[in-house]
Amino acid sequence: xxxxxxxxxxxxxxxxxxxxxxxxxxxxxxxxxxxxxxxxxxxxxxxxxxxxxxxxxxxxxxxxxxxxxxxxxxxxxxxxxxxxxxxxxxxxxxxxxxxxxxxxxxxxxxxxxxxxxxxxxxxxxxxxxxxxxxxxxxxxxxxxxxxxxxxxxxxxxxxxxxxxxxxxxxxxxxxxxxxxxxxxxxxxxxxxxxxxxxxxxxxxxxxxxxxxxxxxxxxxxxxxxxxxxxxxxxxxxxxxxxxxxxxxxxxxxxxxxxxxxxxxxxxxxxxxxxxxxxxxxxxxxxx
Length: 287
Fold this sequence. Notes:
The protein is mainly α. It has ten helices and no strands.
């Protein structure tokens, strides 16, 4: 129970950071450089603010855990000293600066450059997650490989989650033909994302738990659950690509409802994966 706050803060921060990076990254996969609508700019700016607030919460929970105190009893002096003495301070500086850049990009007259600037700044903010948890604790050459594999894993996952969020919102409005075309086009990008996630996931798992895996540990059981949710997401993505998208293109009346339900379920599974990642990051693989 004492870790509940840390896990919850990691989940909210991770989910918000993934969307801040993933939404503009998804837009760039289509070469979309047109000016964002005011509604999209506001949504991304609000997500960046949520990510910043959740990151501060996560930092407080992390310092409290390191100091062996509760969040309620954590004092400012301890928080400041731990930030200065650990990589957490640098991580927070980079993350909050990058998130501020996302907010500024949404209010400044950047027009066509907004997506690119938001994707770069959001990607940097998300990448700082690789310098925390198990990846941040890795040392030497293995540690460097682990962190960069984790960065690629995070960016690939964020692009998928951002695509799901974007497609889910658009499923409730807009032209179904254009939506079907974009779903079909993203399938090619999705294949690259899946391959990248599998490869970097193997590197990350080996770097954290070694081989053979400690099969009796809670960490491995949660990893298995994560892989099960990931497989379910792949199954839904296949249904969307090979069954629902062609039905949309043919103009079948029931296809729109099937797409909404499928996308919402896939997005829910994706958030479930994020929740498991939040737990995995605070558990000892051998315990």
